[in-house]
């Protein structure tokens, strides 16, 4: 059994520049920081701002369910009502097919399909599939959120590409969450950043969270880094984030945040949609969010031994030490993770080192296994 601080220190010893780790069980919060915000820079602190990458997804999922509760959209609605670009898309004969090997759409894409990542829009589990390359090259998927074009242009391009599967007949990753964000913005006639702030961030007191870095946050923002052989190099400085804000607010992976802000979000989820007297979701919506609503084909590279709820994965097997039946949350490519465990434990792990190897994934796995152990002890 290792302490959280020992795990953070071990990560830095293995080349991770800096870490913020947090485990919360009710009012008992264990925090550890280690390393620096950038090579040669200031130490990591609890209030360090990071790119959350795909840890954004559960937050977008919560926003979408809140908009459903308001009656603006309904899960059965056809997505083309707000996204006409999707009305006549084609579908690949199988997920790894060539882009021109398609069949007609068997049924319309619905809001529900987007909520559960079953629309067919997204990354398939086969990394060699032509569709994967097309999403990376044409839609800026799989990389920095700032590589995506502005929303209308992204939807135009999405409409020119085939789906990976018929709506409702499979599960695809990432791009569909970006498309869901555009749908929410169009349906509410509001920019997604403003909508998110109004519905979730402001009521929950998440004042350090947003799609673009503020000038007052630069000094405490960690630099994005990657491994270069035995070295770690900066690929995205804090100043670059300020100077080059994204033109596309990515609901799939574009939020910046801090550990305390993320803790507030996950405490809301743990409490059934309410925090400090502010209710942003109904208990029923939170149950939906955390339910295993979709599954991927066996061996899918993104969703192994897990199902998908709304914006995050749900553990349905315990094949790894970090699994716990009913655990809900997700990880991000910048070395980030946030999960709610079945007995109420919240685990948050924030670095800014891109996942580059199984060893990097193993570092996160060790931490999440310790969170799972602590949660099981509460049973």
Alpha-beta content class = alpha+beta
Kindly identify the CATH topology of the largest domain: Beta-lactamase
CATH class group of the largest domain: Alpha Beta
Strand content: 15-25%
Q: Please work out how many helical segments DSSP would assign.
A: 11
The CATH superfamily of the largest domain is known as: DD-peptidase/beta-lactamase superfamily
Would you report the number of β strands?
15
- The percent of residues in helical segments reads 25-40%
Question: What is the H-and-E element order?
Answer: HEEEHEEHHHHHEEHEHEEHEEEEEH
- What's the alpha carbon Rg, rounded to whole Å? 20 Å
Strand order of the largest sheet: 2-1-15-14-13-12-11
User: Low-confidence stretches at least 5 residues in length (pLDDT < 50)?
Assistant: none
Q: What is the count of structural domains?
A: 2
Distance between the termini: 18 Å
Please give the CATH architecture of the largest domain: 3-Layer(aba) Sandwich
> What is the residue-mean pLDDT, rounded to a whole number?
96
Shape designation: globular
- Main pleated sheet: 7 strands, antiparallel
Domain Beta-lactamase-related: 5-348
Organism: Agrococcus jejuensis
Protein name: CubicO group peptidase, beta-lactamase class C family
Q: How is this fold's topology laid out?
A:
Layout lengths: L3 H10 L4 E8 L2 E8 L14 E2 L5 H13 L21 E2 L9 E2 L7 H5 L14 H10 L11 H10 L14 H14 L3 H13 L19 E5 L2 E6 L1 H6 L12 E2 L1 H12 L3 E2 L2 E2 L3 H7 L16 E3 L4 E3 L12 E5 L3 E5 L5 E5 L7 H19 L3
Antiparallel strand pairs: 1-2, 1-15, 3-8, 4-5, 6-7, 9-10, 11-12, 12-13, 13-14, 14-15
Helix pairs in contact: 1-11, 2-6, 2-7
